[in-house]
Amino acid sequence: MRRETGLLMAGDDPAGGQWNFDHDNRKALPGNVRPPKRKRFEPDEITRDVMALAAARFAHHFGDLEPFGWAVTCEGALEALDHFITECLPRFGDYQDAMKTDNAFLYHSVISPYLNIGLLTAREVCEAAEATYDNGAAPLNAVEGFIRQILGWREYVRGIYWLKMPGYADSNFLNATRPLPAFYWTGGTDMNCLAHAIGDTKRHAYAHHIQRLMITGNFALLAGIAPGEVEAWYLLVYADAFEWVALPNTHGMVLFADGGMLASKPYAASGAYINRMSDYCAGCRYDPKIKVGEKACPFNILYWDFLIRNQALLARNPRMAMPYRNLAKMDAAHKSRLQAEAATFLDGLGDGYTSDTQLTLEL
């Protein structure tokens, strides 16, 4: 796509001499870095009318009506894009994988609702980003990483959807069947990272891609939650969620339910990753450094249980070789304890408040 469009190209070669700068884009947010205040838009009369209707008819539904700060016109969407390009894009690359308590947006673009509903076009967004690199206003790792998400990943996901649906949604490679826990609808969990990610979702109808992939998605993957349950939740709660983009991302990348068609490995992670990339763990009752026991981070216990439970399906995946080598070093008693504690924790989730129930409410 870079060659076809000419974006970030130097003749036949990629700008900067390489295609991908992801190794520069995995920094946690330092305590002394303050992301800019994001541009918000005052609801117009039509928007207020719709909000009043929603409040009257659907007050019990998931999500907060106030404060509503999204743009609702092309002009507003262009203002939001300009704000991102000038104020946030220069540091987007460095901190695109970071997570921060009480800051849902950081340096992310927050323009996916405008792109997916058609208030912005993918080309104008990519060209605006490229111009910042050309004029020296943003570094290449930031611009390349941002353009790749739109020109590369977004188009790839769109292709998967139109090529493989509707049968694609029926696959369940890891045989996950657990119902969606009730806290996905309430945010009522002692796991601080999940409480914050779900809280951001409830307030803004938005969470950035690492919150979706490595917090709410990672938990669903490790816990073995049924793909249809998770996919219905993602489709209902996010302002940018249309089935063509939300379902393949959730089904293939988040849940590995397609067995590796879309992504080459499950994005499973323990509490150590969450602790490294966020400040969530500092305010949590669980400790990411503790592996078993009452204070152990559930992500730690569930991570190893996930590997044990799915070993027959995943052990031959080359990208899973390292975790399975580490698993092989564990003695049988420790593995049994991990499995027992995982089972106790998962049993404590209950029967859930299922997406079928929520869908009935929505309809």
CATH superfamily of the largest domain: DNA Cyclobutane Dipyrimidine Photolyase, subunit A, domain 3
Largest sheet: 2 strands, antiparallel
**DSSP strand content:** under 5%
Terminal-residue CA separation: 40 Å
| Secondary structure tally: strands | 2
Secondary-structure content class = mainly alpha
Task: Indicate the percent of residues in helices.
Answer: 40-55%
CATH topology of the largest domain: DNA Cyclobutane Dipyrimidine Photolyase, subunit A, domain 3
What does this structure look like?
This protein has two domains: 2-164, Serine Threonine Protein Phosphatase 5, Tetratricopeptide repeat; 183-362, Orthogonal Bundle (DNA Cyclobutane Dipyrimidine Photolyase, subunit A, domain 3). Helix 13 crosses helix 16. By secondary structure, the chain is mainly α. It is globular. The longest helix is centred in the middle third of the chain and has 25 residues, at 140-164. A hairpin with a 2-residue loop joins strand 1 and strand 2. The chain has a two-stranded antiparallel ribbon with strand order 1-2. It has helices at residues 2-5, 45-57, 74-95, 112-117, 122-134, 140-164, 183-186, 192-204, 209-223, 227-237, 243-254, 271-277, 298-309, 311-314, 321-328, 332-347, 355-362, and strands at residues 9-10, 13-14. Mean pLDDT is 95; it is low at 355-363.
